[in-house]
Amino acid sequence: MSGKAEEDVRENRHVPWRILQALKGSTFTWPFVAGFLFFVVAPIVLSLRVVLYNKQKSGLGLGEAKEVFVGADNLVRAVQDTTFWIGFGRVALYAVIMVPLTQFLSMVMALLIDSVRAKTAGKFRILLLLPYMTPGVVSTIIWIYLYSPTTSPFKWTGINFFDSNLVWFSMGQMAVWAGLGFNMLIMFGSLQSIPHEIIEAARIDGASELRIAFSIKVPFMVSSVTFTTLFGIIGTLQLFNEPYFFRSISPQTITKDFTPAMQIYNEAFQVGNINYATALSLLLAAVLCVASILLYVAQGKVNRA
Amino acid sequence: MVAAAASVACVIGLAACGGSDASQTASSSSASGPIEIEVWGWDKNAPKGWVAKYNESQNEVKVNYVLQASNTATQQNFRNAFEAKTKLPDLVQGFAPLTTNVSNGWAEDITDAIQPLLPKFTEGAKENAQLNGRYYSLPGAADGTYAIVNTDVLAKYGVEAPKTWDDVIALGEKMKADGGKVYNLAGEDPSGFMQLAQKAGANWFTIDGDSWVVNMQDEATGKAVDIIQELIDKDLVSNQTYKDKPALYNFFDSGKFAFTTLAYWSATGYQTNMPNTRGKWQAIDYPSISSADEGKVPGYLGSASFIPKGTDRAHQDAVIKMTNWQNTPEGYEAGRDPDNGTLGVPAGRTEAAGLDAEKYAEEAIPDNFYADKDQAKKVIVNAAGNGMGGFDLGPNYDAWFPELQDQWGKAVAKQITLKEAMKNVQDFVVQDLQAKGINVKVA
Fold it and tell me: What region holds the ABC transmembrane type-1 domain (chain A) (predicted)?
């Protein structure tokens, strides 16, 4: 603590210095809190009003619509919307396969990178993170060329990645490609925090690298895996980019409301029913919230066991 | 943020922003100087190009062109300004169909102000600007649709260029034995089918008194449905997506593909990317379905430039004056792209506009693409001047078009018939309109 800070602490005798220090420390979070309030909390608060109204027209519907109070109608309709739940079922099934797969591959990558020299690790870390840093539009163009039956470097395999039966596989591949680097980095970070003496002791005791990985490194990664899994689930249930891209390739499979996020987008920006889109958004947020809590509780139990 | 920025801009340059503001009306009616209008659009060459030239050429109207980043940006900025009830421009480059603009309360009724402009436009172009007999947008026509056919394929099977859709199907059946496809139906794009329905005489949205009449299953639509269904059922078509252009060009250029419909500007891309079939494409008129629709050129307008609601008459008149100038030889030339020297083929104009469509078609036709350039020029000029109008897209186009895409995709993939698809779309339209409180009847 600097001399100036100590002086401040002494002057404010009524406030314990720990609290004062904590308050000062918290100022570093203000930029984040401001953004969070403005871009997350405020829209949610506003949406609570929007969801209670509907836009109603009359006659030929020419001219501006009137706003009508409808109470919980939009929310009730959202809960009963089979399209929404079918879409949700789709992404949930996709998540069941994709999230563990991505986590497993990321974990393997993190362990492999951790087992090589720091210089080599650095190179691979950057390479694996590149897809994550690539803007969505750019990566879409890359994948069009990778998948196109005409230009694909894999066309010799005879696989048509644009085929409607292969859509899920093709989307999954894109998602793994994009998500691997980020998850790997978080897990790799937790590996870096393992005290060196533990690993050294294991080596002296004659443990193989594989044994060290399974018995020491993996248990140390659990908390970061919980974190990336949670993000993975939330991200996957909000699936939008990949199916939106495949919609033009395989429109008979990927309909306009194929996933909940696509349905919300369609309602808000195509149909123009912001009120109902808001209801669907709140419903999706609530479901995600419940799913996150369940996962947290379950993983807590696993950790204690 | 954008809305805020736009409103700030309007506060600073008060006179530059249109609207029904009382002080503005007063200032515009005083004869102290040129009336200022604000135009929003995404023509990057406009400010230094035609806008500068127009402002120099006269001193009655001064145009302030606010350059938008793109079509989408224009739409977002306009929606924001409209929702925030800040001052709106006096003219917006079209980003949505006519009836969508009216339905959202964006477009002003300009029936009185537009009169001086009308002689310069064809009936089709005028119909495209009207809803229920009133004008809500500037007149305009889609770039005329015509077709091209591969002369090598014609020679191989010893047939003439198709004049009717029956000819197209007949050619497809001959090609089928060799694995060729006569036409392409992209699963994501039902617009070609919509044109065919329009050509057959369909009118999906009409107004009857205080109610919309939805008519997607009439006899005319049925004719178009039957043609497409026959092409699908007999496996005469490919399903190349426009999202994967390399694959599409590759197939079109393979010699196993015969015929497609297009507007003139597509030919440049084809010429560049289809080296094997260069110089082999014959331009033909859009094939007819029956003798009743011979010579009619389909083409509906997906976006209509409009004068926003609340713009006073003086500003409306100023916009019309400017548009009038743009439809003179001098004004049209001012729109030429300074970088590549191109200028489009004017569509939907009458002789009163004095525009030399042949000259512009000549410029727009790429060398070494058409089998006969002069004949292609005739086809293109004919398509530009004879476009059908009035294919109304209804008050909820943004809602039903994605549904049509879904249903069309299923029909093209043979999961359902196109007839079933059209019933589903019509049901969707009726349900959506009813949910919005709009009166609707099924024809």
Answer: 88-295
